């Protein structure tokens, strides 16, 4: 019996080496592919006065389809603005790895002080040791919102100065025919905006960038 025990003990290192050679061992930790979406009706995919008015595939759903590895918490709300959201935003827990900040349309439309509010949001996310993505402002129909370009430039500058990624929504191809109204995108334009967001997410977490499987 003792000889058998000694032989078994001597065999353990060899078995362990073989297991490691075959790729066994501790399982790799799953990547953190969590993202929280904060924004207005553009990120919500809504239009009109009712929350029920929503495009067929809202941005959160489009993002999940394009990058299925991401777990998405959608806090977007029609009519929201950075100016109005900041006081409650800085009281929220920040469990997600990435926090998308899509504001500015309603700030511009109401002439709100956009920069300090957006910068406060970014600072709060950074203090929580999370990663921000600031989006630019989506395009609107001509002459509908004269301050749109200025607020978009502010979003870009805040992202640059705070050292966070900027998802350039203003660079997505825009066709006035792709709009529900003067401000809100139809499905094709909304999806192009999401694709811009995906580019930023892929930079932050390439391990979460596996595309959807084709059927």
Task: Describe the secondary-structure layout.
Elements: H1 2-21, E1 34-39, H2 41-44, H3 59-66, E2 71-74, H4 82-89, E3 98-102, H5 105-109, H6 114-127, E4 131-135, H7 148-162, E5 165-167, H8 187-204
Parallel strand pairs: 1-2, 1-3, 3-4, 4-5
Helix pairs in contact: 3-8, 4-6, 6-7
Short description:
By secondary structure, the chain is an alpha/beta fold. The chain has helices spanning 2-21, 41-44, 59-66, 82-89, 105-109, 114-127, 148-162, 187-204, and strands at 34-39, 71-74, 98-102, 131-135, 165-167.
What does this structure look like?
The protein is of the alpha/beta class and 215 residues long. It is built from 8 helices and 5 strands, in the order αβααβαβααβαβα. The chain has a 5-stranded parallel sheet, sandwiched between helices. Strand 4 (131-135), helix 7 and strand 5 form a beta-alpha-beta unit. Helix 3 (59-66) crosses helix 8 (187-204), helix 4 (82-89) packs parallel to helix 6 (114-127) and helix 6 runs parallel beside helix 7 (148-162). The longest helix is centred in the N-terminal third of the chain and has 20 residues, at 2-21. The N and C termini lie far apart (58 Å). Residues 14-25 have low confidence and may be disordered.
